[in-house]
Amino acid sequence: MKSTILKTTLREIRESLGRYMAILAIVALGVGFFTGLKVTKPAMLKAGGEYLEKNNLYDLRLLSTVGFDEQDVKELNSREGVEIAEGAVYVDFLAQDESGAETVLRAHSLLWVQNHVVVKEGRMPTAPDECVVDSLSFTRKDIGTTIRVSENNEEDTIDMFAGREYKIVGICDASYYINYERGSTALGNGKLKGYIYIPEDGFDTDTYTEVFIRLTDKFPLYSQEYKDYIDEAMDWAEPLCEDVAQARYERLKEDAEWQIADGERELEKRVSEADEKLADAKDELLDGEKEIEDAKKEIADGWQEIADARAEIGENRQKVTDSLSELEDGKAEIADGLELLEEKRIEASDMEDGDEKDAYETGLNLKEAQVKGKKAQVEAGLAQANMGSRQLEAAENKIAREEKKLEDAEKELEDAEKELADGWEEYEENRQKLADETADARKELEDAREKLADLKEPETYVLGRDKNIGYACFESDSDIVEGISNVFPIFFFLVAALVCITTMTRMVEEQRTQIGILKALGYSEGTIMGKYLFYSGSAAVLGCGIGFLLGSYIFPVVIWSAYRIMYRLGDIRIILDWKLGLISLIVSILCSMGTTIATCRYELTSVAAELMRPKAPKSGKRIILERIPFLWNRMKFLRKVSARNIFRYKQRFYMMVFGIGGCTALLLTGFGIKDSIKSITYNQFDEIQINDMSVVFNDPWYEMDNSDFEEIMAENAERYTLVFEESTDLTKGDKSKSLTLVIPEKAEDISSFLNLHTTRDVPIAFPGKGEVVLTEKLADKCGAGIGDMVTLQDDDMNTLELKVSGISENYVYNYAYISPETWMEQIGSAPEYKSAYINVKEEKDVHSVSAAVMNCDGVASVTVNADMKVRFSSMMKSLDYVVLLIIGCAGSLAFIVLYNLTNINITERLREIATIKVLGFYRRETASYVFRENLVLTGIGAGVGLIMGRYLHQFVMYNIDIDMIAFDVHIAPLSVLYSIVLTFVFAGIVDWAMNKKLDGINMAESMKSVE
After folding, report:
1. CB of 149 within 8 A of CB of 93?
2. Side by side, which strands form the sheet with 460-464?
3. Considering the chain, what percentage of its residues have pLDDT values greater than 70?
4. Are 36 and 556 in contact (CB under 8 A)?
5. Is the pTM of this model over 0.70?
6. pLDDT tens by residue, 821-859
7. SS3 category, 438
8. Left (φ > 0), alpha (ψ -120 to 50) or beta: where does 531 sit?
9. At the N or C end, where does the chain have fewer CB atoms within 10 A?
């Protein structure tokens, strides 16, 4: 481009900077929207992939009803294709915080290689009694507090833990839980508050509850290569898991048999030893009884001897007493005799000597001798009696001593009897204890035998990442962003192209004279064309560059910030997709330079003389309103002028209407997406699937012990029904789709749990024999209509040929419904009912009932519809931010379009507006005169935009294709109102901003003329 042309082009850009910036902004907005949405999913997947790869999320998760041990893990590690296999432990338990409040947590063991946790606050645990906890359920204030394993847990649960208290040392995010979902549990109210991770030695068990496997080959997150790789891995992992579980089952069975036999031997040995000890104890007790009897006899004999001795002493004491009495009497008699002899001697002294006196004295002497002899006898008797008394006292003292001995012996005997009684009591207690312990041991052995007899062949499960709720939801959420990015930007580019056409058309028309002068001066058509191409092309290139860079940063960051409400996946990774940038550049250049070429081509074909003169004005025409006197005659003059200006200039009219209409359509589509998304959870779980919960059993209903389940149902359920559910493929022609086949045991009861109706709320009868009801999206994808024949086939190659009798409204997953008679007729056997739909009583808490049901024998899983509703609502809620971003961009686009078109309108009518000012119009009247047309055109454009928006919304929703979700495609009346109001708000802002330009128009402009 020649320097002179370049200078004039740059001057033109400087003088019409608003118009130039409008092209730049509209291109930047379109490119930013296009590239931003396009790179958001790859950026999200890159961020998620790097986070999960960095933290080594598992590829396969192995579960078995018999668990795993170290030997199993070693065998899995030896398999080719396995990078690492690690056994892990997890258990749900009732936890108490320091205030004593109870919640349900899930404890996981920390692995060395896989499923790492990212500590947000604090540190990793180093001791068995330390843990890190869920960042969604705990805060940094909880660090340092303890979590206690509640005594209300079952004994088996308590025994799983090495300790009873665990100190919180950190707050973490776990790669195993990348979103807010924590799953359900059989404890408490059925809801998990969160998780904790503790070292492996914090558990007291040798059995792993699960095994995680990382495979050797690596592929991008959610890529088809990865899915195919996992499918291939499943082919060997499932049989391997079955073999490992079967081997462990055999080991457990052999160990149990050996332990039972060893227990029986040990029991018999201990019983024998205890019997011998009891027999010895009994002999000792019997000997003690004999000794006590002998002692009793000896004591009785002793008391008898004492009694006899006392009797003899009594007799002798009486004799002594009598003898003493007699001796005392004799002594008194002797005293009397001696006194009488003394008197006789006195009398004898008075007698005369002689023979008579001598004879008398001799007689007295003889008598005295007799008395003295008797006295000596009495004294001797007294001495003998006194000696007898003393002997009796000595005997009594001896008896007293003997009595004391006997009393002591009796006390000792009493103690011995008590000791013997205690011995017998202890003997009976020990004998009873032995009997009880023996009975308990025999009962335990019997229970062990029954348990061994009931030990079933192991059931195994091999799960990929797609069964992890967070992982699966993240894929669905990113798919929605991709679906929007495939459609929306196209409309932005179309509006951008419209703006470029309008701008360049007006610019070329304004500069007809300048083009003519340049041609007259000898500039080639290519050089002149280059000026305008540079003008529009430079704006497009700059806008493309700015939009590419800003869009690649802002959109992923904003959308990721919204998704971080639900997901814990680290920071977003900014991607600059240069291939996408090149496509954007090409499209931008086509929209700007292509429209410029199309606009300039006609003018450049004209001769210079013709171009240097203004275009002849179009011949005046009457507008439609003028042909309606009833309306036209009642309009004021200025309104008639505005009406003529609006409808006479067709190009401006269509540009304004379609420009504004496009913006309104974008706004309406943005709001419509929000409306279509937010209602699906209510429609699905409040209007279609009206059961409170669904249960899956381990075995068919009629082959399991369902007494516990029925007892809980009688207490808590309003009603329940058995259902057969299985994954099936539907085929019609060359189209095939996976679905869930549902067969109720009693079709007449299903209406209490499932409301089959069309999208117009027309009830659908449950299908009869040979018929099937399909859900709407499933039928649409397979091209099936009412009356068509379709084929259903499951993994066991059971094939059903069915006639479509109805197509029901449905929004989550794909279903087909048939009657049990249809299955019986075509398969030849009754369906195996392994599921149930439940409606709980109104006064019961559904989560508490869910926890009770989970505790029933034979129950594999429980799904609460309220939880599903919350899960899908949260997933859809994250799209609100995406929709708000779309609405914001649509609003910005509307503002740019309105500003550009209004600016062009004012610029091309400078002399007209200046003339109005010369005629004495006030500032407000001038603005009203100009902007009245804008408001009318805005209203017409908004009306057209509503029509365009309706079809654009349907087109966008059709292209947001998520396999498990169908959208309720509609636009709420309030959204229509919002779109119209926002369009007028933007128009009002533009009019306010352009007031300054009106004020800056010089009235002298009205005097200018090319002539």
Report:
1. yes
2. 82-88, 210-215, 60-64, 460-464
3. 84
4. yes
5. no
6. 999 989 888 888 988 999 998 888 888 888 888 888 778
7. helix
8. alpha
9. C
